Amino acid sequence: MTCLNYRHMLLICQCNWAAGNGILGIYFGKLGEYYLNKPGNKRIIQNMKITINTEVQCAETEIIVNCSRLDEDVEKILAAIRILDMKLTVYKDKRQYTIDSSDVIYIESIDKRTFLYTNTDVYESHLRLYELEEKLASCNFLRASKNCLFNINYVQSIEPDLHRLILTSAKGIKLIVSRQYAPAVKQKLEA
């Protein structure tokens, strides 16, 4: 996409990206230090430049990421961007709705029916759990058990329980991660 006559707003800063409560937030820090991920994380990206071009003649928003290499930090930024734009077609009370995947806390399959749980509603999808897992793999959804997926952006705490894990969301929702999926979930959440 090409836009003519850009008005440039250039920000050179250090930012703290937080994925708390399922929402990607940008907090500007001091003198160009950029912290990514969780509190206490010591990885720092130095001298990140954010350029925002605004032009009324542009028909769509385009995001371009320039980096020296595609590492884990860049992958996390890309995953956060993808989840903001992913829409799901769901059903409730014989009506069809389109919801953002970022609003989904977890997905559960019961008696060959698939339910999506948000903060406010429960929806049903015609897709099977494995189809949703494939579709949402790049959007921070992980398998908790053979019948459940969860959005890692909503995980507030992790509690070990024998060989399983108990995940708790900010709203107090508890999900049990079976021992088969616990090592992968633990690794992803600690990364």
Strand content: 35-45%
* Strand adjacency order, main sheet: 11-10-9-13-12
Mean pLDDT: 75
Biggest sheet overview: 5 strands, antiparallel
CATH topology of the largest domain: OB fold (Dihydrolipoamide Acetyltransferase, E2P)
Quaternary state reads single chain
Radius of gyration: 19 Å
| Weakly predicted, low-confidence segments | 1-41
The CATH C-level class name of the largest domain: Mainly Beta
Number of helices: 3
Shape: globular
Given helix and strand content, the structural type is: alpha+beta
Describe it for me?
By secondary structure, this protein is of the alpha+beta class. The chain is built from 3 helices and 16 strands. It has helices at residues 72-85, 129-135, 182-190; strands at 7-12, 15-18, 25-28, 33-36, 44-46, 49-54, 87-92, 95-100, 104-110, 113-118, 122-125, 141-145, 148-151, 155-161, 164-169, 174-177. The chain is globular, with a radius of gyration of 19 Å.
Q: What is the fold's blueprint, element by element?
A:
Blueprint: E1 7-12, E2 15-18, E3 25-28, E4 33-36, E5 44-46, E6 49-54, H1 72-85, E7 87-92, E8 95-100, E9 104-110, E10 113-118, E11 122-125, H2 129-135, E12 141-145, E13 148-151, E14 155-161, E15 164-169, E16 174-177, H3 182-190
Parallel strand pairs: 2-4
Antiparallel strand pairs: 1-6, 2-3, 4-5, 7-8, 9-10, 9-13, 10-11, 12-13, 14-15, 15-16
Brief overview:
16% of the residues lie in helices and 43% in strands. It is an alpha+beta fold and 191 residues long. The chain has two domains: 7-70, no CATH class; 86-190, LytTr DNA-binding domain (OB fold (Dihydrolipoamide Acetyltransferase, E2P)).
